Amino acid sequence: MMFASWMYIKYLICFASSSVVLFSITARSSLGGFHHNRVLQVGIDGKITELVAFGNVVPIGLALRGNTVFIGQAGPIPHVPEESKVFSFTMQSRTPTQLASGVGLEDIGLLADLEFGPEGALFGILQGFWDGPFEGAPAEPNTGALVRVNQDGTFTILRDGLNQPTSLEIIGTTAYVVSLAGEVWTIETSRIRPCENWH
């Protein structure tokens, strides 16, 4: 087995019903770039189990609603909008089901994070237009967007022109967006009427 020279573990969530933590993992080998593209479960006894494995799609962002896990995908380079996708799976049915994608969004791709907000609406952060010279390069400045994930399989742009956003947290009705430069912005979601509740 080839071990990675470094591992990037992100998006931990507590699965309260079974007292476990789920996280996605990405790694790079000193022999060349690759992604593990897995969602892992850590039990309270410390046992680690692989729940879901993907191809070269860069899973990124986890959100929990009831017993359903929602996971985003940035997609392979060049991170075109239609490759930004949202999937879901449950502990009972671990086959991911695609729910939505960025098809139809012009030059706004690279899904970076997911988060549930008021009234059960699901939001996402897209880093923006990607034209990087190498894997791992950020999107172009001021091309990112906050979107709502719709149950008809689409994304609705709620705020665009964001400068390389990387993560999203929603507390109450306020969305906190962190940028690549370490800035934190707030966007008031109560002014954006969610039209759909994900059950």
| String of helices and strands | EEEEEEEEEEEEEEEE
Structural class: mainly beta
Q: Choose one word for the global shape.
A: globular
State the end-to-end CA separation.
40 Å
Over all CA atoms, what is the radius of gyration?
16 Å
Mean pLDDT, all residues: 81
Report on the biggest sheet: 5 strands, antiparallel
Q: What is the number of E strands?
A: 16
Specify the number of helices: 0
Strand content: over 45%
Helix content: under 10%
Low-confidence parts lasting 5 or more residues at pLDDT below 50? Answer: 1-10, 27-33
Which key terms come to mind for this protein?
0% helix, single chain, 52% strand
Structural notes for this entry:
The structure is a single chain. The chain is mostly beta strands. Helix content is 0%, strand content 52%. It has no helices and 16 strands. It has strands spanning 6-15, 20-29, 32-33, 38-42, 48-53, 59-65, 68-73, 85-90, 97-101, 109-116, 122-128, 144-149, 155-162, 165-171, 174-179, 184-188. The protein is globular. Residues 1-10 and 27-33 have low confidence and may be disordered.
Short description:
With 199 residues, this protein is mainly β. The protein has no helices and 16 strands.
